[in-house]
């Protein structure tokens, strides 16, 4: 992956560019964003990006000054500039500073993708040329391995014939293992990556396990052993986990299929890299290979087109709201798991799954805030927990995070016993009569069959659920009408979206119309 640093003084533009396209699919990774030129210079030194996207006009150090400073320091980073129509003269000056092009605001997605595709080809050529230059100076085992992995790179025939044996690279099989490491919410820095690479060299090269190398943002191991056996995969993963046990970071490990020739390790690398990119759909704590079953395999396959028409975030949020209201931790867990597995079965992307669950959580918090003003004082904590959904690297970890967060919004345990359950149900109706209460939805959060819960409710109260709910709403309506509130507002306040329907219910239980009652 080629690293990208986005620089713009407007937060909405920075985040918009970050989410506008699928960077990974195009071979890029947005490593950071910067709010001005000085910030960008500091983050350039930290990340050493391959591409910078820079706004022309920024406070402090402008985009032009930033680019000029980079060029004075002989930095060969590629630059795309952002400008408005009024900044065209600035754009022309920036192009003179050896930039790769400019984009007019608002940025057009197709135009940006075109630039990135062209730049990716250029970056690959530059990487290959750089490595070939380095290989001329010194051919060690790592660089021999790297030379077989970079497209377009060619190993000298003399090296293939005379030096592979000396380098101990004539093996029966070759398997590429890749590790992707990440700190809390950020990629690890180059210095830390090199330090960790040293640990792997000591653990695996000096014991004859294989050759350790770096490529893109990975630490790689070209292993001698065939990892088709589960026991060997577990042992290797255990060794890697032990090396990283003292580090405050998460990691994903994946291996490609074994190949019999050194010149074929590129296919093993590509397969391992693909598994890493799909790590969200695999359980953590294991070495991912072709033999590893993704978690989506545990759910029935559903037509992906059904995702848009069947899935209802509002309905799920309502059920979760009720489950939180009565403190039913089990129902919360089951509802989150059910909707997550549904999205997996639909073939939804990682981003879609995270965005959908974040939307549901946001909707739940909004509902809770309407009934509990104290929720508003926890805004920062709640926002951080929602943002953390997008930082999870595996589906199972994300699901547990969402469940724990929702259960923590009202840390109570569900009361057992039929009578107490119905009492909780009555309390819920009294507090939430304005909501779209349905017996089916409540049955889900009380862990009962809908028909059976209806019978329990009738036995305990002497009323059918809908009748009881209507009577509660009508009693609340009578209070509001007595205060002089207009009929259509009263209907809305007590949970009736249709005024005519409210009229019929009110007349049924009171014997007169809401208007007449208001005049009494």
UniProtKB/TrEMBL annotation:
<dbReference type="InterPro" id="IPR018060">
    <property type="entry name" value="HTH_AraC"/>
</dbReference>
<dbReference type="InterPro" id="IPR020449">
    <property type="entry name" value="Tscrpt_reg_AraC-type_HTH"/>
</dbReference>
<feature type="domain" description="Response regulatory">
    <location>
        <begin position="3"/>
        <end position="120"/>
    </location>
</feature>
<dbReference type="Pfam" id="PF00072">
    <property type="entry name" value="Response_reg"/>
</dbReference>
<dbReference type="InterPro" id="IPR051552">
    <property type="entry name" value="HptR"/>
</dbReference>
<dbReference type="InterPro" id="IPR011006">
    <property type="entry name" value="CheY-like_superfamily"/>
</dbReference>
<keyword id="KW-0804">Transcription</keyword>
<keyword id="KW-0238">DNA-binding</keyword>
<keyword id="KW-0805">Transcription regulation</keyword>
<dbReference type="InterPro" id="IPR001789">
    <property type="entry name" value="Sig_transdc_resp-reg_receiver"/>
</dbReference>
<protein>
    <submittedName>
        <fullName>Response regulator transcription factor</fullName>
    </submittedName>
</protein>
<keyword id="KW-0597">Phosphoprotein</keyword>
<keyword id="KW-0902">Two-component regulatory system</keyword>
<keyword id="KW-0963">Cytoplasm</keyword>
<feature type="modified residue" description="4-aspartylphosphate">
    <location>
        <position position="55"/>
    </location>
</feature>
<dbReference type="InterPro" id="IPR009057">
    <property type="entry name" value="Homeodomain-like_sf"/>
</dbReference>
<dbReference type="Pfam" id="PF12833">
    <property type="entry name" value="HTH_18"/>
</dbReference>
<feature type="domain" description="HTH araC/xylS-type">
    <location>
        <begin position="423"/>
        <end position="520"/>
    </location>
</feature>
